Amino acid sequence: MKMTESKLKDLVREIIEEELSEDWRTEKEKWSSPEARQIMDDSLRMWSKDLKQVKFRVIKDWMTAAKAGVLDFFDIEKGLSTGDASRAHPKEVELLHDLLLRDKIIDRFRSYFGGKKAMNNRLSKKR
How many domains is the chain partitioned into structurally? Predict the structure, then answer.
């Protein structure tokens, strides 16, 4: 069966119209109840607040140890990237590693160590 140019154009137009008329919104299904949306919104706010508090505690622990001269950025980096895999889920370790690599955290480590990479350099100036 031979297709003419006009039939081909009509076929292409039909396919394009079908694609364009499709609903591409992410919210295709309605909420199961009016309360369901409110419950999810409130829960997400609460979970977000909890995660922020945990991140703050982690950073505080790291900075306290860094100020005391016990560990530096590279110790934390090595601790997160090596060691026993059963300590934490890989995604949790990835979350902590991303937290460590944020610019503000790296800058705080630099300010505590004066731009030096080794803890010994920092401690020798102290004495």
Answer: 1
